[in-house]
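Page 37, continued from 36.
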């Protein structure tokens, strides 16, 4: 069994990016610049944002963190996004989700300039992905593809089961795995809350991508021998015996499933780290695109 270690795979991506940024700076140009907006003080969001800022620093990106109060009106956030859209020194914009209930997430997503949408959520970028055009790929699916590439996981002709149909992971993941390119060419089945024969379908899966947000949902009896398991789930589960009062659980019951799998991602330490790698690659691409426009 291969442990698909996100620390190792993401470090490889980051080292490549660090070299490219060094060359950019040596040529006399400014480094890529990512702006991150966080609204409120959600504990998980704080952790994610801190990690993104730290990773930017490590590879030489400039980053700007903008904090807004949880009670702000939607128009205040939209004005801030518009300001960043018009800032020529900003290459990528990321608004950390989830947002407070008074703010419509889709409206915020659509407010970001598609050329700076390094999360890959804007309908323009989503449409390009569907059509196989060059675009920003949502960071988590992008990170998963980078991981498959790093560990040279064979995907051609395989049956991939994607559990979850969100626009952030499930849908784009199904498109990437079925695309006619390296680490694609799978036959893909998308499963969701209304799938009646989920267990039977999972048992057919050569590759299972679990992205439904239910801790330890995928059990050993749902997985065939030798399957590749990609666990996207990351849920804080209360645990009084834990130092922080909670433990991070994935969507897969790791201890049960790992012995049956040929390769599996851990939680934490797997897909989450690759998501940041995907985001960083998108930001560098946004920078390159903007520099070409300037030239």
């Amino acid at each position: 069994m291969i442990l698909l270690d996100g620390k190792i795979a993401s470090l490889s991506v980051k080292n490549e990016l660090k070299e490219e940024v060094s060359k950019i700076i040596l040529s006399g140009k400014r480094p890529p610049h990512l702006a991150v907006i966080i609204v409120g003080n959600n504990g998980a969001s704080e952790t994610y944002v801190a990690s993104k800022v730290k990773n930017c620093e490590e590879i030489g990106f400039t980053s700007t963190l903008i904090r807004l109060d949880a009670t702000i009106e939607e128009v205040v956030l939209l004005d801030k996004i518009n300001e960043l859209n018009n800032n020529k020194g900003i290459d990528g914009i990321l608004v950390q989700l989830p947002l407070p209930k008074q703010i419509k997430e889709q409206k915020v997503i659509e407010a970001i300039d598609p050329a700076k949408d390094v999360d890959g959520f804007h309908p323009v970028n989503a449409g390009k992905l569907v059509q196989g055009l060059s675009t920003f790929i949502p960071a988590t699916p992008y990170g998963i593809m980078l991981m498959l590439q790093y560990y040279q996981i064979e995907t051609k002709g395989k049956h991939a089961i994607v559990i979850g149909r969100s626009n952030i992971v499930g849908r784009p993941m199904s498109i990437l795995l079925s695309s006619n390119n390296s680490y694609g060419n799978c036959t893909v089945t998308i499963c969701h809350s209304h799938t009646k024969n989920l267990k039977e379908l999972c048992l057919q899966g050569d590759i299972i991508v679990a992205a439904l947000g239910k801790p330890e949902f995928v059990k050993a009896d749902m997985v065939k021998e030798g399957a590749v398991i990609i666990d996207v789930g990351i849920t804080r589960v209360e645990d009084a015996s834990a130092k922080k009062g909670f433990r991070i659980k994935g969507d897969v019951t790791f201890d049960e499933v790992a012995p049956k799998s040929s390769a599996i991602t851990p939680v934490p330490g797997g897909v989450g780290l690759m998501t940041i790698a995907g985001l960083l690659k998108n930001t560098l691409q946004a920078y390159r695109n903007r520099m070409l426009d300037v030239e």
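The CA atoms of residues 145 and 183 lie 7 Å apart. Flag for discussion at group meeting. The chain has two domains: 28-113, 139-271.
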